[in-house]
Amino acid sequence: MNKRLIIIFVCLAIFVLTLVVGAVVFTVSDVNILLQSDKNVAFDKTKILETSGIKKGQSIFTIDSDEAKAKIEKQFPKLNVIKIERAFPNKVRIHLDARTAILKIPVANSDKFLLLDYRFDEENKISKIKILDMVIDDGEIYDDEKVVLVNGYEYSCGDNPVGDFISDDNVQINALKDILHTLDTLEVVNERVPATFDSISIAEDNTIRLKTVLGLTLVIRTETTVSVQRQMEIIYSKFYSYQDEDREKPNYLYINNNGDLINSPKIEFN
């Protein structure tokens, strides 16, 4: 037999053998769904797997992690997909944790409220506020957890916004995201937000007012040369440097036009 034909035959055999071995060895045989949270969250592993679109028997290389993540988080709003891990040669692990409702915002032209979770998307470097649930009850407690009511703003949405991210792109919502991001960097996250604040008010004077559980209100200006995040950093650090008796006074803490930090019973920017 011609030596060239032998080489071609051997190469074809190796290629076919590689395909056969790959199809067998790198076929998904097991999918583990792991909840990395201390919250008691009820979820159905079978439904999560079905929603993800990942099927046993498919090639591990054909899994679209981003698509599977988006499907799971849309169908199960209270879950956050940390990552979808390919454990070669034939296993997949879906790592989840539970989202926390920290804010409550009224729905426009209704008696309903949206329960919101905040996360900073490290991959895309953006803040995201997700709608976890829609409720009628206007009380403070949700699933045995306190949430902070956002006053002065109503969200216009469709009939079933649960699972979506807040899409409004205006000064107030972007400032709220910046405030939450700053609190996140200061390690005031999840349950610590309702434990620190009673309410958040979006006021008509271009301010966002965060009333603390101690009575002192932190005032963040949305139209000033000092960024929202920088204002929050300065004001919040000063808030915790006060003695208890000073923090408990029902005053306003804000930065005036001169960049000075003011603690006063009333607000005067000029």
User: How would a crystallographer describe the biggest sheet?
Assistant: 9 strands, mixed
Radius of gyration: 26 Å
What value does the average pLDDT take? 85
Beta-strand content bin = 25-35%
Give, in order, the helices and strands: HEHHEEEEEEEEHHEEEHHEE
Head-to-tail CA distance between termini: 96 Å
Range of helix content: 25-40%
General form:
elongated
Query: What is the number of beta strands?
Result: 14
Structural category is alpha/beta
Give the helix tally. Answer: 7
User: Ranges with pLDDT <50 over ≥5 residues?
Assistant: 15-23
Strands across the major sheet, in which order?
6-5-4-9-10-11-12-13-14
